[in-house]
Design goal:
The protein is α/β, with parallel strands linked by helices. 22% of the residues lie in helices and 28% in strands. The chain contains 6 helices and 17 strands. Strands 1, 2, 3, 4, 5, 6 and 17 form a 7-stranded mixed beta sheet that branches. The chain has a 5-stranded parallel beta sheet with strand order 8-15-9-10-11, with helices on one face. It has a 3-stranded antiparallel beta sheet with strand order 12-13-14, with no helix packed on it. Bound molecules: flavin-adenine dinucleotide (FAD). Flavin-adenine dinucleotide binds next to strand 1, helix 1, strand 2 and helix 6.
Amino acid sequence: MDYELIIVGGGPAGCAAAVYAARKQLKTFLVTKEWGGQSNVSEDIQNWIGTPHISGSDLADSLKTHVLSYKGDFLNIKENTLVNNVEKINEGFSVTLESGEIVTSKSLLITAGSSRRKLDAIGADRLEHKGLTYCASCDGPLFSDMDVVVIGGGNAAFETVLQLTAYCKSVTLVHRSDSFKADEITVEKVRSDSKVRIITNVETKEVLGENFVSGLKIIHKDSGEEETLEVSGIFVEIGQVSNGGFLQDTVEVDQFGKIVVDPWTQKTSVEGIWAAGDVTNVRYHQNNIAAGDAVKAIEDAYIWIKHSK
Ligand SMILES: Cc1cc2nc3c(=O)[nH]c(=O)nc-3n(C[C@H](O)[C@H](O)[C@H](O)COP(=O)(O)OP(=O)(O)OC[C@H]3O[C@@H](n4cnc5c(N)ncnc54)[C@H](O)[C@@H]3O)c2cc1C
């Protein structure tokens, strides 16, 4: 085996794990596409413990710097690289990188996180970053004094609406059903805002616009009627998808594709594979939780690596 442990992912979970693994002198390989993870795009993170304010990119830099300070005899790192496949082999696992390179290890820690669920509507791909966006905190201010739409019905969608009402002319929330997953208190806050229109029970059919978004065509499910919302911006908040697709045939996943873990140890259904952070079926998604769960995984994996035959 090339390594005792391979860590997949360089977000808060993967970085925390790498620091702990290196300090325990486990022969470790960390492979990640990017550093810092999802909150990289945040302008101001205010709940990373010990740091009252930090931008997402500064957090990414500090995580990377911390991990790189342990690069050496025990920790090897490969960045800008995806893991494409994982296979069980006799004494461990073989991991195939997107370059085709194969690396083997006795154990794995999967911290590949999650990504935004993409809008399935005509024109959505073509107009992404041209008025259609998945990040209100990054792009919201560009739509000052404009009419915009938010698609979704969970907390992320409602919080996005509240954020946008501060500077957009109007915000229309469209949702596919007539009930919301968001907290009642947030829903009420949005409902009472005079700038907001809420449209439920609709399908999003088409994103309109030649070079830039000019509207959204929706279909009212009850009547079958089509309506065009004339807007300049579309903010999509329809949930997350797991980045763990490359091992879905290897470990047990839930109905959303999230890796099922034992919360006591972060073990997956396969002996020798641990997972932590947003790639797992953990209930809450936060940087501190991802980092903490990854530390828990390393504590558990260390004992297994050193004491199993
Ligand atoms: C816009 C936004 C703002 C947020 N703000 C906050 C906040 O203020 N406070 C807070 O606590 N939480 C915040 N969160 C949530 C927080 O970012 C996540 O809970 C956290 O990033 C999860 O960390 P993770 O390490 O599990 O996964 P991720 O952050 O998703 O990191 C996964 C890592 O794995 C890499 N990767 C993915 N697939 C592969 C692969 N196949 N091969 C190799 N590498 C791979 C990625 O490049 C990435 O580096 C925010 C999330 C978003 C989207």
